[in-house]
Amino acid sequence: MLFRKKIMVSGLLIFLLFYAGCTSESGKHEGSDLTETPAAPSTENGDYSPATPAMGDATADPDDPAGKDADPSRKFIDADWAGNHQILVAYQQGDNFYIVRKNRENPIDETLVFQTNRPIQFIDAGHEGAYTAVYVNLNQTFPGDETERHPFFIIDADGHLVFQPENVGRNEWVNVEWSPVSEDTALLHILNFDGTHRLTRVNLSSGETTPIPVTVSYVQWDRNRGIIYEQPLDPEQKGAAQDILYLDLETWQSEMLIEQSAVDFFRTYPDRMLITATAHYDGDRPRVDLKWYNLDSREWDESSMRIPGLYTESEWKWIPPFDYDPETRTLFYTRVDSTSHYLLTDQNRYKLHAFNMDTDHDTFLMDVHNPRRFILSEDGKWAILITAASYVNPYPIEQEIYLLDLAEKTKVRVQ
């Protein structure tokens, strides 16, 4: 999901650099009580706690995949893969927030991993769910002194707190990028209160942090040795094209990849494919161009696609949810049926497609409703689909989570 410029990635508004919901950069710069803590957090004030015994049946009915009998007291927030066969789901129930682990083939039973009274906004799991980044919305009212709370922390698979970055205040934002080859390594990209950026490599086993001496507005891993990044624009260069560069983390040498790029969003994958998305207008109709760039050959692939976009009535841009399976070289993407409707209306109809980059064959898989995130399993056979059931413009206030069997073209609602 991710985070740059004024774009709508995965169906959500993204402001400046990071996930939607980072609602303001104004206000007093509060301090923080942040520490790197390789131990379970205190539970004396009821703030948060690690795993507790399994919760058992989760009220879902295997004969009710549409979720008609779902527990109405649960407000689903986010989900991510914790390996090929398990998912992590975040939800709110009453005044508390929970992260539970479920099995993809039978997402009825669940095990509680973590609970807190902080308002969880997003989760982002690393390889096999060894670690999970938890993002907290500090603009939402919750018990306690806000100045002593932290907007981001990392827990292990058992729900124990293992890391919090230092010197991050409530009006600053952190994004984590997990290493593709080392479960203990991550990049932390921090947007400071004053609009500047910090980039740090973290070893979660040792707690060691290494500042990376480049200024980035967006970053992705290229294997474990290097990163692909964009440099931030001067505020007076609003709307200008940006360069996309490569940095070797061993030699600290940088290399230009794509000069003066108009790309709005990109992601890198293990086969060194860089997939880009660019939202624009073709005449008076919004369009999104999806293209792929080979990091080995340093060339654009001849294949590409242009799909309908959505009107936003603003300078914000909308990018549809997509993900890519490097084993089959298949791009899974959602597309809106037409451009006759505006963003965030229930009149829009979306479809999930699979595009094979070797054959250029495009296959319709299923209809979907208001897609917000689409996340492939590591084996490329299943996917998590998060949809927005309703909005208070522009943010979703009710969300639904589905597990998709891509081979069978079926989906089951997680409850």
Provide structural commentary.
The protein is mainly beta and 415 residues long. The chain is 0% helix and 49% strand. It is built from no helices and 33 strands. Strands 3, 4, 5, 6, 7 and 8 form a six-stranded antiparallel beta sheet that branches. Strands 9-10-11-12 form a four-stranded antiparallel beta sheet, with no helix packed on it. A four-stranded antiparallel beta sheet has the order 13-14-15-16, with no helix packed on it. It is globular, with a radius of gyration of 20 Å. The model is unreliable at 1-48, 51-68 and 141-148 (pLDDT under 50).
Notable characteristics:
415 residues; mainly beta; six-stranded antiparallel beta sheet; disordered N terminus
Layout of helices and strands:
Elements: E1 7-9, E2 12-14, E3 48-49, E4 56-57, E5 74-81, E6 86-93, E7 96-103, E8 109-116, E9 120-125, E10 131-136, E11 152-156, E12 161-163, E13 173-178, E14 185-191, E15 197-203, E16 209-211, E17 218-222, E18 226-230, E19 242-248, E20 254-261, E21 265-268, E22 273-282, E23 285-294, E24 299-308, E25 317-319, E26 322-325, E27 330-336, E28 350-356, E29 362-368, E30 371-376, E31 382-392, E32 395-405, E33 410-413
